[in-house]
């Protein structure tokens, strides 16, 4: 397939993960013709807030791509929230044309109560971080937004927390949270979503803080 009309894709991992979790996905998308990028969020165990991790996306994008280069983001688990913050709060909406989140706790997860760090506090269902991020969720309607999730997820509790009232929602019956990034049906759906035409009329509202 011709990759000349495709945006570079950046893969953003979740808590306790590294870029290694995307080994299969990266190889698959590269084989399909995408230019794939990924980098480690540091630290990866929640010691920094998700807003500060999102700033690492800004830094990576600014030093890797020219100012007029559009990009696509794929965020797994916590990485989906980090990606959303970049898009909704750090001006990423001016660059990002497609955002795919995979098993991300958009409405929080009860498992975040088992581990106390700045990052996990923000992933609790009643956190100020999520309330703020979800108050203008309609911003995501300005781009191609897709949430992939599995109802069998026991890391995101309830699993339906991955649902949002905007964009496209895809439910996949994948047995485990971590399997979502390597399951063949999920990979196929990601490629299909990254191939979809972008919205032709984009009235960008910049909520950069």
TrEMBL record:
Q: Which SUPFAM superfamilies match?
A: alpha/beta-Hydrolases
Q: Which UniProt keywords apply?
A: Hydrolase
By its UniProt entry, which InterPro entries does this protein fall under? Answer: AB_hydrolase_1, AB_hydrolase_fold
What GO molecular functions are on record for this protein? hydrolase activity
What positions does the domain AB hydrolase-1 occupy? 7-128
Tell me the Gene3D superfamilies matching this sequence: alpha/beta hydrolase
User: Which protein are we looking at?
Assistant: Alpha/beta hydrolase fold family protein
What is the scientific name of the source organism? Lyngbya aestuarii BL J
């Amino acid at each position: 397939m011709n990759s000349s009309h495709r945006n570079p894709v950046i893969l953003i991992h979740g808590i306790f993960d590294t870029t290694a979790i995307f080994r299969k996905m990266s190889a698959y998308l590269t084989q399909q013709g995408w230019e794939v990028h990924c980098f480690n969020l540091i630290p990866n165990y929640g010691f920094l807030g998700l807003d500060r991790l999102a700033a690492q996306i800004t830094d990576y994008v600014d030093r890797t791509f020219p100012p007029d280069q559009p990009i696509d983001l794929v965020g797994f688990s916590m990485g989906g929230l980090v990606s959303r913050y970049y898009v909704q709060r750090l001006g990423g909406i001016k660059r990002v044309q497609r955002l795919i989140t995979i098993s991300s706790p958009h409405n929080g997860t009860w498992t975040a109560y088992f581990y106390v760090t700045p990052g996990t506090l923000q992933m609790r269902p009643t956190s100020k971080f999520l309330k703020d991020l979800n108050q203008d969720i309609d911003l995501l309607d300005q781009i191609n937004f897709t949430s992939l999730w599995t109802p069998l997820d026991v890391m995101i509790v309830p699993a339906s927390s991955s649902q949002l009232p905007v964009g496209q929602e895809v439910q996949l019956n994948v047995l485990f949270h971590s399997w979502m990034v390597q399951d063949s049906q999920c990979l196929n759906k990601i490629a299909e979503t990254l191939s979809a035409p972008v919205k032709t009329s984009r009235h960008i509202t910049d909520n950069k803080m």
